[in-house]
Design a protein that fits this description.
By secondary structure, the protein is of the alpha+beta class. Helix content is about 25%, strand content about 35%. It has a single domain, classed as Nucleoside Triphosphate Pyrophosphohydrolase (Alpha-Beta Complex), CATH 3.90.79.10.
């Protein structure tokens, strides 16, 4: 973590929930969507929701999961807790909380929802609503090992720093695109997960009236 990141974390620690809520409330048209190879610009898609869950701690951190290697879809990839929105779910936030309970044993009552980000539509046919929640301290998560290999945290301040993101060039379907990635320790976060997190970080920078400049990688 850079000195600038440490300073920002110390200054914002007590006000992160307010800042994140303001970031979620910014207009959906804050910026044009990146030309992202993981994003489908067409409307529609199977409705899904994920929880960008931030744990209240001296250095707040975001929960991520590593998907089980035995899963059929995206085995071993890093993602947020989440999944399809079922007919019984009252809202995308309710779906994200249900999935977080099923996947990592996160008690819904521990989570204060702060808002949602614009829908992210993937080339695999999902329309994902990222829901941002502030998690009260409590007992450790208990992942369902049928779905989740492990749960780990990435410092919020690290994930909100534009210089920590890499923007890769990628060719897909005869077109050139960008794909985001974020590294922390040995964890490589990329694709749709990194793009949704980057959207939140970009909005936080806007709240702070600060620049947001990812590093371009050829």
């Amino acid at each position: 973590m850079t000195r600038a990141t440490e300073t920002r974390a110390a200054q914002a620690r007590d006000d992160w929930p307010t800042c994140l809520a303001r970031a979620c409330a910014l207009p959906a048209t804050l910026a044009s969507p990146e030309d992202d190879a993981r994003r489908d610009p067409s409307p529609g898609g199977r409705a899904a929701a994920v929880l960008i869950g931030i744990v209240d701690a001296p250095m707040p951190y975001i929960y991520f999961t590593e998907r089980s290697a035995t899963l059929t879809h995206h085995p071993g990839q890093i993602s947020f807790p989440g999944g399809r929105i079922e007919a019984t779910d009252a809202s995308p936030a309710a779906a994200a909380l249900r999935e977080a309970w099923e996947e990592i044993g996160l008690v819904p009552e521990r989570v204060r929802m702060l808002g949602q980000l614009p829908t992210y539509r993937t080339v695999t046919g999902f329309a994902i609503t990222p829901c941002v929640g502030w998690i009260a301290p409590g007992r450790p998560c208990r992942p369902d090992d049928r779905e989740v290999a492990r749960v780990f945290g990435v410092p919020l301040a690290h994930a909100m720093e534009g210089a920590n993101y890499r923007r890769h060039r990628h060719e897909h379907g005869g077109r050139r695109h960008r794909i985001y990635s974020l590294d922390h320790d040995a964890n490589h976060i990329w694709g749709a997960t990194a793009a949704m997190l980057c959207e939140l970080a970009r909005r936080v920078a806007c709240v702070h009236d600060a620049p947001f400049v990812p590093v371009d990688v050829d």
